[in-house]
Specification:
Blueprint lengths: L1 H27 L6 H9 L2 H21 L10 H26 L9 H20 L1 H4 L15 H6 L2 H20 L7 H8 L2 H21 L5 H5 L8 H22 L9 H25 L1
Helix pairs in contact: 1-4, 1-5, 1-10, 2-5, 3-4, 3-5, 4-5, 8-12, 8-13, 9-13, 10-12, 10-13, 12-13
Amino acid sequence: MATKRQKNVWRSEINDIIRGACGGFLFGIPLLYTMEVWWIGSLAKPQLMMMAIAFMFIVVYLLNQTEGFRKRRYSWLAPQAAMDTVEAIAIGLACSTFVLLLLRELTLETSLKESLGKIIFESVPFALGVALANQLLGDSRNSNGEGQKPDSTISNKKDELNATFADVGGTLIGATIIAFNIAPTDEITMLAAAASPPWELAMIATSLLISYGIVFQAGFSDQQKRREQKGIFQRPSSETIMSYLVSLLASAFMLWFFQKLTFSDPWTMWLDRTLMLGLPATIGGAAGRLAI
């Protein structure tokens, strides 16, 4: 019994961390594609970095007192909110560091001061997203995490084709909302020029993992009902891949719409820039599927 209880505690903690990280990606990914934030972080002085950390701690602490990224609430709220705040900031720092490395904005040649500045300033929206995880896409399940079984009569009436079109539509809407403001910027061109095939493969894997985590693992918006959603691509793996491909198509269209790509450009340029915009588009697409 003790071993089983310990496993449940660890499983719950891992799910909380995944939920917080997914909330951070939903909230913080647009600023990671903003060169002005890179420049501010790279030029920031230590005093300004400390002020950013203090500001981040205060705001995240206040958010954790109201909601936070955990499903369970505590009677002794203030100390737990402080611990959750430290954990939320740590998640934000880890996620922003990972994405900056993925985007090649942090390399072995980057100085320690510049790296710290970029990580700290980019982690502010990530940490806020972690603390807002449950509010971004709230879960309709009860506090024990047990999902309500959907009405089988209603579920059986849903046509698989209509359900698939709904998923595709939700993916397109979410991808457009998140990536539309990023597509016309010069950051996509800069990042795509610096990306090599191994980093692009890592970008694909990261996009798929985050999309899967948001929809099927983080516990957002009645996750059990989402798993039982009918459609042509009803399996979590196939639905995730389908959503990613739709997000890539939406990314390519947005880049063409803003004249960042033309039909005379080589296919490698289309691939590089589409994959680079595909990460935020996929995150938006995952949120869009949950919203339908």
